[in-house]
Amino acid sequence: MSKFTHHLFVCGKCKPSKRYGKGKTHDSGKLRAALKKEIKRLGLKAQVRANDSGCLDQCDDGQVVVIYPQAIWYGGVGVEDAERIIHETILAGNILEDLRIPDERLRCGKAKKAGSAAAESKQEN
Ligand code: FES
């Protein structure tokens, strides 16, 4: 069995953020279904998977989708963006700049470090 080339995680708990575009449809279930539908339609099921996830700790950028192993973070994603993500990012390898969460805003590791520091501080006291 081969590995997935792309694994998309769709946060199921996001609320739309202020960067969320007008006219977009916010619905994580429909978004994931639209991603899966396009993956299936293009015969990519063996290589690409879209799953629900819990909070990805990037809530200010909701609706969030992260793609691994490329670690591409998208925010403000609407149902309308699903086909674009599959065609432009998955197939063509292009980053959608209007959706990309800039690296400097990513919280990856920061919360953990803060939590670890708090835990260490607690142990010292
Ligand atoms: S609720 Fe979606 S990233 Fe936190």
Automatic annotation (TrEMBL):
It comes from the Bacteria. InterPro entries: Thioredoxin-like_sf. CDD domains: TRX_Fd_family. SUPFAM superfamilies: Thioredoxin-like. This is (2Fe-2S) ferredoxin domain-containing protein. It comes from Bremerella cremea.
